[in-house]
Specification:
Number of helices: 5
Number of strands: 12
Strand order of the largest sheet: 7-8-9-10-11-1-2-3-4-5-6-12
Number of domains: 1
CATH class: Mainly Beta
Mean pLDDT: 77
Helix content: 10-25%
Structural class: alpha+beta
Length: about 220
């Protein structure tokens, strides 16, 4: 489940210049509800070939390193880190949704022709759905402010091409708002995001480093075919 949550975050925010970039989104998801009276945020920080995703409502983070082709899952409560090759991430996503991996249940993302201004950005509306119960609706701004996301969009386009997120990951631009429903173990998981802030303030290299006191945990066993 944690992998799917992080996967959704990456699919939503994959949208060259290598300035630092921090994007904060308000996040609502039935997979990890926030405490009553408290909002939840998803923060993605990018510096060159590295990106880090943090969730305010969950003590986990992920770090993507495109240069080493590795994905790091950090469990802050247990002080553990799991290291996964990016290629393996794609295999695990395919196993989590075998019908999409087989090319039988991909969703097509299409522009509706509607335009809306959200948080100062002029956005085109897109929608998509699949027979497997996935629905997507998003508002994308064509802006150069998110150029730093491009290397990660290219990665995500490949990683998610066999899933219902494939069409979304392939699209360029800044996703200012999104709504989705995904069936996970026959239960619908609904998620909504909306841009809260975007900053190009310099980021310290240490943000993308693994804590020295975290232990490395083993990889989860993959189910037999």
């Amino acid at each position: 489940m944690k992998i799917m949550i992080v996967g959704f975050g990456m699919a939503v925010w994959v949208s060259a210049a290598m300035a630092d970039l921090t994007v904060v989104q308000n996040l609502e998801t039935s997979a990890m509800p926030a405490e009553p009276g408290k909002g939840s945020t998803m923060t993605m920080k990018m510096k060159g070939p590295k990106a880090r995703i943090d969730f305010s409502a969950m003590p986990v983070s992920s770090i993507v390193d495109l240069k080493s082709r590795k994905l790091f899952f950090l469990d802050h409560k247990q002080k553990q880190v799991m290291i996964m090759p990016l290629d393996l991430m794609q295999s695990m996503l395919a196993l989590s949704a075998p019908e999409t991996a087989a090319g039988q249940d991909k969703s097509a993302i299409q522009k509706t022709g509607k335009v809306q201004t959200i948080n100062g950005y002029t956005c085109d509306e897109y929608t998509g759905s699949s027979g497997g119960g996935t629905t997507l609706r998003c508002w994308i701004a064509n802006t150069s402010e998110a150029a730093e996301m491009e290397p990660f969009r290219v990665y995500a386009q490949d990683a998610f091409k066999a899933t219902s997120f494939g069409g979304l990951a392939a699209m360029k631009g800044l996703i200012v708002r999104s709504e989705s429903t995904v069936l996970t173990n026959d239960k619908p998981v609904t998620s909504r995001t909306e841009l809260k802030s975007l900053s190009k303030a310099p980021l310290a290299d240490a943000i993308f480093s693994l804590p020295a006191d975290y232990t490395v945990m083993g990889m989860p066993a993959l189910p037999a075919p």
